[in-house]
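hi support,

uploading two proteins for the ticket. first:
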Amino acid sequence: MQTDFIKEYWEQQAKTHGESHVASWGDNFMLDLEIKTIGKYITEGDNVLDVGCANGYSTFRQLESHKVQSITGIDFAQNMIDTANDSKRKRNIEKINFQVGDVRALNFADESFDVVYTTRVLINLPTWEQQIEGINECIRVTKKGGKIIFSEAFMEPLVLLNSLRSIKQLSPLVEHDFNRYIKKQKLEHYLNSSGFAFTNDEFSSVYYLGSRFLRDLVTETNAYPGFTNPINEIFYNIELQFSGGSFGIQQAYIITK
């Protein structure tokens, strides 16, 4: 299993926040961008695997938008899965199945799903070697011709943003203790050397530039708790139309098997 303190963090998040999106992430605009990006690769009739489904918040959103055959959500935090199953019972939904699972050892046969995606899951694994295990498992359970989407956090844009912030004497952004951001260069080298065709979707670059840099220059951030600063919504709406510049820490790699 994951190192204990990482698992305990997410177990506590589920207890504290229940069915709220905050159990997974407080940034509702980023969650929405992530959901929309992943949704572009889900088509009618697909069997979908959501790896790292947390309390099911995003899983239910995908089901609302797509006429899939089924969605299976897995998470390594028992409390997250308990909350997701409670929500499923309240909604009386049959097309979703939630269960405890480990991305490094998925309990599914080869080529079981049309679409497999992770949402900030690989970054909860403490080493690159374990992240590779998770990558390979997601690819293994995807059908030939299917899509694998890794929506994760990456190191290079963090460095780029911090370079900007340092120019204006802003404190650097840091990884949480429970995260190990992935290096884009390392991931791309691994995928290329393994013979996988992939594309990179920078779906959050403008939003990050606005919400993690420009916001701190033009507003008193302490006046807005959490992610309620109105600048966030402004740059979210811009992001829906325009992106680029490699500032988005959250990016998606889309692999065609």
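and the second one:
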Amino acid sequence: MGMSGGNNGGAMAEINVTPLVDVMLVLLIIFMVTAPMLNNSGIEIDLPRAEAPPLDDSAEDQLVLEMAADGSIFLNEEPTTWDTISEQLAALAKLKPESPVFLRADGGVMYRDVARLLAIAKRSGMPRVGLVFDPSAAEPDEAD
């Protein structure tokens, strides 16, 4: 029989470690693949591609958050301030919870200001925040 060991008919005292090693190797591979994915924390945004079709400007429920080169902020072309933008976005998130926010920023605006505005939009309850850019400007220059 498979369970009998030796000539005396007693139980086999050795453990077969091959299945244990197989299971451990599979678990190791799973952890190695999933561990880098766990470190992707931060602001969640849908980054647009240069090949993306133009946005539909006729949608009435879209929110456009703009930042000019001088640092002034506009929400749907209405001027606002850093102090009030969070409350305005939170109120709009309650009225239109699935409405996307499109962030347009001048090329001269500091990255930290854009990141701050993205963070405010996410903390205010906006589920989808996207960046708007000029697709023609995304093409690399031949001189570079």
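thanks. also noticed: The first helix runs from residue 18 to 38.
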